[in-house]
Amino acid sequence: MFARWFTVLSFVCFGLLSLFVVQMTRRPLCIESKVVERIDRLGPQSTDTIYRCAVNRETAYSTYFGEQSRDLTYRIQKTERLLESFEPFRKKVQLTIFPDRPYLYRVQGQHIFIGQKLLEAPGHLEKALAKIWYRERNDSLFVQQDLMEEVFTDFLVYLDLGDLDIGDPDTRLKTALRKVKWPFVLKSVAAYCDSPWKQSEHFALCQDKAEAAHELNQQVVEMSLRPLLVTSWVNAYRQLTMKERFEFTQNLPQLLRAEHSEPLPIVGSAEALMSNTALMKAAEAIKNVNLFVSKTNAIKDSETHRLFLSNFTNELRMNGFHDAFAEASFDVLYVSQGPLTEKSKVLQQFMKIAKAQPKLQMAVRDGVNLWMLPSRYPVPVKSFGQIKSVRTVVEKCGGYNFSYVMDYAEETEKLLVVDHCDAKKEIQYSRYLSEGAEGFGAQNKGTAFVQFHLPSLLMKKAELEQVSNVFEFIQKRDVESPSFKSLGWREVHWSEQANAYQPKAFVDAIEWFRMPN
Questions:
Q1: What residue numbers bound the domain in which 98 lies?
Q2: How far does CA 405 lie from the centroid of its chain?
Q3: Helix axes 145-161, 226-238, angle to 10 degrees
Q4: Does the global pTM surpass 0.85?
Q5: What DSSP state is assigned to residue 37?
Q6: What angle do CA 379, 382, 388 make, to 5 degrees?
Q7: What whole-number distance in Å separates Cα of residue 169 and Cα of residue 171?
Q8: Could you report the per-residue pLDDT of 47-103, keeping only the tens digit for each?
Q9: Disulfide check for 283: which of 81, 151, 325, 399 has CB 3.0–4.6 Å away?
Q10: Residue 132 has what DSSP assignment?
Q11: In a domain, 16, yes or no
């Protein structure tokens, strides 16, 4: 009996001793990281804290970190391994999570302050670590430093995640490396705030659209360029061979630290500062980012960097950015004589067409605003130095002379003038966009119109400037008139399909027409 009790007592003591040893040797909740020293979560009643595992510091058990530490460790380790493969962090990083300020985002020195919603959304934590790594290597004064930082750290996140998936915790939308065109990339503050491409630091501000419109008015032009620049940068990188990609990424620290053969501008140019056009300011920002890459002394020692620069410049050009800085170009532009709103039928019609034909660059404008379709947010017309298009459509009630037509000569190649006096009658344009003036005529029976080819018309400007009414001039067809003779009409072909006339002439100044009833 005594032996039995002694055995039981021995097992109990052994069990207690084992538990004591396990407790003494148990490692507290921690983060497996070489870089992140400490993470705090500021709750309403208390603060939960975990440290880097190597610190081996005892902390109170946290339910939150018990559930989340594995995911946090994975994300942090993955990012720091990539960045430290290029060059190690210089100092340890601290992270503070705010559950009650879900959209907070600030990177200050080596400290990341982040709201819980943004932490849980993909990409924002990785982006913050990339920003610290970037700033450790680049603290130069540069007028486009914020934009350059966004582009560069987006590229680092792309390398880390294999794509650029930085998410919006509310809409669940993510940044996507899709083809973007200049100047369609420019946004109003409202459009910028609705986009997943807004800066992480701006999520909180964009919760209040009125405050955002005031605070971001001066920044929105520059930050709108981010998808254009990042997509061009990534595509330029993708064109490199595997060996060249490795060499390029290994030289990233040198690219950030290197001096430049020309001093980088620390303020905007006088031309851009004096200009009221967003297009001019945006163009200068792109030019300065390209300057940061092209004028670095790192390029002297790297053939791969020179190849990347060539690819990057070519990508910008392919996406519509040329040296005509204050110019916006479209395939089709509709010009309204009266003010438009989001509910205007003609705007809604062109919006629908733009969604159905995404390859066509379309815009609608009135005297104040321009809509770069399919975006429903307008950009002020004054933002653009010059607006050009291949085809332009205007609606006009009543007669007009050739001087009215010539006013569009610097803006478009083809001008369709539609005779529209009945406000209740809606003009349809879908077939015009796919089939040209012939399709327009077929779709709008009984509507008078004339399509002009302005480069040809300009050749006969002197002969036609005396004509006071274009419709009367065409209808009369006075073969003895020097003005009419200048057009060189050989015959006028009637199209049954279009129910309109197509002149055959030596000078294709007037391509199609239909007279008013």
A1: 28-137
A2: 35
A3: 50
A4: no
A5: E
A6: 85
A7: 6
A8: 999 999 998 888 899 999 999 999 999 999 999 999 999 999 999 999 999 999 999
A9: 325
A10: H
A11: no
